[in-house]
Amino acid sequence: MSLLVIYDEKGNFLGAEKEHTKISEDLEKLGVIFQRWRTKSIQKEALQEDILEAYRDEIENINRTFNFVSMDVASITPDHPKKDELRNMFLKEHTHSDFEVRFFIDGVGSFYLHIKDKVYAVVCEKGDFISVPAGVRHWFDMGKTPFFKAIRFFSIPEGWVANFTGSDISKIIPDHDSLVSSWLKS
Question: Are 16 and 3 in contact (CB under 8 A)?
Fold first, then answer.
C-alpha cells in the first residue's frame, strides 16, 4: 500500500493519507507526479535488459513526453553487497538539476520531499510512478533490509547526480522501516 505521511521540520506528525488517488492529488499540488502504473510478471532473476524490454512500450510512451536520454534499473536486495553504503548515501538530503523519475516494478522504498517547512514521506510500492521536480530537496530510504526494483529515467547523460545540502533532517524524520511498521502493517 502506498502512503503519504507529512511532518514538520522538527519531526512532528501533521497528517497521513493511504488512498492512492488522494496521495496523487496532494502531491500534484507540490509539482510531484505520482501515478499507479500496471506492472508485469517478471522473474526475480531478470536482468536489466530483460526488464527494459518487458516495459519497452511504457518506456517509449514516457520518453515521448519527457525526452529521456537514458534509463536503468536499480535493484537492491537484502543480500546486495553495497546495500548499507547505498542506503547511507541516499539518506543524505540532496537535490538534482534534473527531475528524479522512478517506476517501481517490485518492492518498496520511501521518498522524503522537503518542501518549504514540511517533509512529505512517500512510501512507493510496486506499480508506483513518481517524478520529483528538479531542485526539490529530498532523500530516499530503502530500509535496513531493502527490496525494490525501479526503472530510473534520466534527461541528462550523466544519470544520477546529487547535490548534497549538508542538512541532517533525515535523522529527525522517521525512517522507512518506521513508516512501514507504523502505518502499513497496522
Answer: yes
